[in-house]
Amino acid sequence: MMKLTILSATVAATAAFAPANTLPVTKSALFSTPTEEEVVTTESATTDIPADIPQPASVAVKPINGWVPDESLPCYGLPGAIAPTGYFDPLGFAQTGITLNEIKRNREAEVMHGRVAMIACLGYFAGEQLPSPFGITGPANDQLQQMPAIPFVMLASTIAAVEIRRARIGWVEPDFGDWSKTLWKLRDNYYPGDVGFDPLGLKPTNAKDFANMQTKELQNGRLAMIGWAGMCSQELVNHRTIMGTIDFYQKVFAGVNPYEGCGDGVIC
């Protein structure tokens, strides 16, 4: 079970969204690739316009953190690919036909999940090793349900407030008259993951430096998602803390019985 979970997390977390020289084109029912009927309708609508009617000039896109969406590039030119895999998208999340809004939404999800996973990895070790003011103990998987009601409500309220704030910054306000126009739509001038929170002033002003830092954050976030999946799965399997699991296998490899001194029905 643990291996299957880690494998699934690995495939999902390593779907890079960044430019490369080649882009494999695949068909998938999971993504909104235009159908043949839509393509024909679009082409016929274009050809029906008389030649003597001037066409509107294409509007220049203003760079966002130095990034200008380029439809000819994989993932519209967003950073995130490094050696040895380069541009890696086996499931087609950024295949030809995926809209710019969908690409930005997928990148937003990847960046935010990566940040949460990095905090979670730190929280697993800190929560299991440091004393808790509420008497919370044991594996991190079992700690949330040990929280008293008031601190739990405060935690949930903080998470809700942060998510609402992020939605107001990056997402288009809902149009209840025609909800399909604004559902899941990000603002045109919003860079995925850039919510304006930079208390240490680490955000580069140079476009190249920003792309490099974004790639570093993405790679660390992807690794953290895999790492968190592994720790969570391990604790679900043996119900031990991370350090407790390390101590357990140190005894095994040293030839010591790790269950010596354990009472009946006690996990130790």
Over all CA atoms, what is the radius of gyration?
24 Å
Low-pLDDT parts are 1-46
SS-derived structural category: mainly alpha
Proportion of strand residues: under 5%
Number of strands: 0
Helix content: 40-55%
Task: Give the SSE string.
Answer: HHHHHH
Explain briefly what this protein structure is.
By secondary structure, this protein is an all-alpha fold. The chain has six helices and no strands.
Describe this structure in words.
The protein has 268 residues and is mainly α. It is 45% helix and 0% strand. It is built from six helices and no strands. Helix 1 packs antiparallel against helix 5 (207-238). The radius of gyration is 24 Å and the shape is globular. Mean pLDDT is 81; it is low at 1-46.
SSE layout:
Elements lengths: L1 H12 L22 H12 L52 H30 L19 H22 L36 H32 L3 H12 L15
Helix pairs in contact: 1-5, 3-5
Attribute tags:
single chain, 268 residues, mainly alpha, 6 helices, disordered N terminus
